[in-house]
Every structure is written in C-alpha cells, then in structure tokens.
Amino acid sequence: MTTGRIAGARRPAWAWALALVALAVAASPLIASWLTNPEDQRLVDLDVYRTGGWALLQGLPVYDVITPAPQLLPFTYPPVAAMLAVPLAMMSWPVAQWVWTVALVAVLAVTVRHAFRAFLDGVRDAAPDGVRGSFPRGSFPRGSFPRGSFLGGSFVGGLRGPLAAPLLFAVLCAACTYLMPIRDQFRFGQVDLFLMALCLLDCVARRPWWPRGILIGLATAVKLTPGVFLVYLAITAFPAREGDTRQRHGSTRQRHGSTAQRRALFMAVFTAALLTLLPFLAIFDDARDFWFGALLDSERLGANAATTNQSLRGMLLRLYLPGWLTTVIWLAAVAVIGWYGFRRARRAHLDGDVTTAVALTGLMAVLLSPVAWIHHIAWVVVVLAALAGSGRDRVRLLVAAGVWLYYVLPIPWWGVTLKALEIPVFSPVVGKIVQNAFGLGAIGLVWLLGSWLPRRRAAVAVPTAAS
Fold first, then answer.
1. What is the pTM of this model?
2. For residue 314, what are the contacts with CB-CB under 8 A and spacing of at least 6?
3. How many CB atoms lie within 10 A of CB 199?
4. Would you give the DSSP letter of residue 316?
5. How would you label 424-453 residue by residue, b for 16+ Cβ within 10 Å and e otherwise?
6. Cα 341 to Cα 235: distance, rounded to the nearest angstrom
7. Do 418 and 383 meet the contact criterion of CB atoms below 8 Å apart?
C-alpha cells in the first residue's frame, strides 16, 4: 500500500564529520588570534578559574588570591566552582588553554544543534503532506511549498539531500562563532557557553538520560545567574488558571507537562542547594568568605560602570545619577522587565515554544543581573534560533539575520568613540545611547520574542490554515 511517505536517506557520518571540520576551519582564525596574543592578555578568565583551583591545592584562601600581574583578578565565583576548577589547575597552562578552547567549540556545536533543532529538521520536514527524507530535484510540482517558506522561497530552495542538515549546521555554527559575545568567550576563556548549554539541554532535550533539572541546578551553583531558570521552572510548574483557553484545550497534556516541570524544579533546587552546602563541609572558610563577603562586593567583578557591563544597572550607572536614584530606577526597571519577560516566557512554554521560553529566560539573566558583561549575552545564540524557527517564514529569517549582524558588530565601542569626539550635545547623548547598544538591544529582543514573534506566528498561521 502506498503511504505517501518517501523513505529518507540516512545522513552519512562523514557528512557530519565534514561539518565539524568546516566549523574548525571557520573558528581557526579566531582561535589563532587569541591563543597567540601576549601571554598576559590570553584567556584571562580561564586563568581566574585555574587560580581558584590552584589556591585549593595549595591550601590558600581562595578569595584572597589574585592572578599574576598585570591582570590581578580575584576569584569571584561560588566555592564549588573553585572545587570544579581543580583539574584545570593540575594541567599546564598551555594544555589548559587548548583543552578549554576545544571544549568551547564543542559546546557551541552542541548548543547550536539543540537550539536550532527546528531549523535543521526543517530541511527534512519541509516537504508537503508529511513527506520526509531526501528527494531528487523535481520530485514535487511547483506550488507544493508555501510561498516564502524555507524551501518554497529562494533562500535555500535547492538545498536537499543528506548533506543539507550538516551543511546548514556548519554554517550556523560558524555564524554564531563570530557573534561578539561568543568571540569574547574565546578571547577571555569564559564559562558562559558551558552554563548556557547546561540550561538549554535541561529544557529542550527530548529524552534526557539525566534527571531533568540537575543541569540547571549545577549551572546555578557554579555562577548564580542561571538561577533565573529556577524562576522559569517555578512559573511553568503549575497549570494555567481556570478559564484560560490553553487550559481548556489540551489540559491533559498541560497537566503532564506541569508535573514534569515540578519534578525538574525540585531536582534543580535540590542540586543547587547540595552543591552550595557541600563546600561548607569541605572548605568551610572559603564558603564563609564567599557568601558573607565576596558575594556582597560587586566591585570585585570589575568597574561596574564600564562599557562592557550591559545590564540594566550598568546602563544606569553610566548616567552618573545620584546613587540612591540609580538604585530606585534600577529596582523599578528590574520589576517591570522581569515581570514582562518571565510572563512571556511562561506563555511561550504553554504554547509549546520552549526555545523562545529559554531565550527569554536567558535574557532575564543578562538584564536583571547587577553586572552582565558582553560575553554574558551569549544567549543571543538561542534568541537567533527562536527567531528563525523552522525556517519557513522569510520575514523571521530576515529579522534573525538583522539581529545576528547587530551582535557581530562592536557597536558599544562605537559609542565610546563618539563620546571621545566631545561634540556638544551629540557626543554625550548619542554616544551614550550607542555605548549601551547591546543592553538596549537585549530589551528590544525581549519585546521581539515576547510580543512580535507570537503575533507573527499567528499572522502566518491564518493564511496557511485558509489555504
């Protein structure tokens, strides 16, 4: 019997291997640049992690030790992070640099594969009437695909077959590598990509072999800011209010999802609490020094008013208002943007768009934190995936491309240059706005994902349903 389904060709392993080689080639100029720059400027944050692990090995107070001159950077992470950094301290510095850099490339690849799953699967699933697989050119008559869709439009209309997904995967990875927040991951040897991957995998993995929630708990214990995902799990762990249309339609599925979210929440809280309390048993003095000393000193993180701090508080600090007024405005902004962002993340989750929910929650980590350096905006990778979706909407693809370009360019530093020109009115006003470009852009992305994207999906769905 004819089922209308064409058996798909199995994507050969060599195609994925070729994609990884292409990614390595694309990233090699960036890696070569940062691994060959002056040694005292090389992967300075990785040196901070190693110094924390080294202090433990030497029996020194973790929060009193600093990296060698000229950086002189203190360890700023929770004590469990120092414990996890011990293996890095046991490696030689050159080996640690290569291990960390290769791991960054690998983790970026894993992140892209899971964040852009719908986009990559769109190559396979874009055939009409549920047909899947690889097809010879001319298999479908003109008009089989909706106008403006991923395969129906002109974007990659000829891209099919077993090489399509690996090729797109390589292109996406290469494109994400050159986003400025991701470039800074390689430049400084940062940990943000790892934490983002942990939170993303915990939320979107289809059949995780680990108890869901444990990765979010680990990430939260290591760097606190992923704790926004505890809020996300909490607000999605309970079914919609009585009378909500999403509650009435598909309530059984929602109840099952809410139960799974509650389990993930309990596991995340348990893991974070366990890894927070463990250092009090193993390295009590260091745990006490962090939670009752170092944590309360935001200046340990660096100059909070520097251009690189693109959080709400960082942007307000650069206005140089009285301290009390800055605090009042910041708390009000945190309340408003936090309410909007988490509310929209919950709605996206209830609508089944988990990628958008994760992207919105990640942006909350950037905006609501007292300090969010440019490399913290690595969440833009997940934002791009949420905007691109399955790739069938050309408008969404163009918007995603615009966001990608915006975060590739070093726009905040253009603002610093404009301010240095000292043109009356223009320099202090326009220069300051441009200096805050990435933080203001993050606010715009929250609106884009929370309001524009649902309306766009609804607008596209109406004519598709009518046809």
1. 0.88
2. 304, 305, 306, 371, 372, 439
3. 25
4. H
5. eeebeeebbebbbbbbbbbbebbebbbeeb
6. 12
7. no
Name the residue type at position 92.
S
Distant-in-sequence, close-in-space partners of 175: CB < 8 Å, separation ≥ 6: 404
Tens digits of pLDDT across the chain (467 residues) = 444 343 444 567 777 788 888 888 888 888 888 888 887 788 999 999 999 999 999 999 999 999 888 888 999 999 999 999 999 999 999 999 999 999 999 999 999 999 999 998 877 654 443 334 433 344 444 444 444 444 444 344 445 566 778 888 999 999 999 999 999 999 999 999 999 999 999 999 988 999 999 999 999 999 999 999 999 999 998 766 554 545 445 555 556 567 889 999 999 999 999 999 999 999 999 999 999 988 887 777 778 999 999 999 999 999 999 999 999 999 999 999 999 999 999 999 999 999 999 999 999 999 999 999 999 999 999 999 999 998 889 999 999 999 999 999 999 999 999 999 999 989 999 999 999 999 999 999 999 999 999 999 988 876 655 55
Cα dihedral across residues 279, 283, 288, 293: positive or negative: negative
Between CA 445 and CA 181 the distance in angstroms is: 15
Task: Give yes or no for a contact between 436 and 416, defined as CB atoms under 8 angstroms apart.
Answer: no
* CB-count exposure of residue 420 (10 Å: 0-12, 13-18, 19+): exposed
Long-range contacts of 140-148 (CB under 8 A, 24+ apart): 146/392, 146/464, 146/467, 148/392, 148/393, 148/394, 148/395
DSSP string computed for 60-83: --GGG-BPSTTT-PBP-S-HHHHH
Q: Which residue has the tokens 């307000």?
A: 316
> In a 3-state reduction of DSSP, which class is residue 133?
coil
| Four-CA torsion 149, 151, 153, 154, nearest 10 degrees | 150
Q: Please name which of 279, 272, 323 lies closest in space to residue 298, comparing C-alpha atoms.
A: 323
Tally Cβ neighbours within 10 Å of residue 361.
29
Interior angle at CA 207, CA 103 and CA 386, nearest 5? 65
Q: Which of 268, 220, 213, 178 is nearest to 365 (CA)?
A: 220
Q: Which residues contact 426 (CB under 8 A, 6 or more apart)?
A: 418
d(CA 266, CA 124): 37
Backbone Cα Rg of the chain: 23
CB atoms within 10 A of CB 170: 23
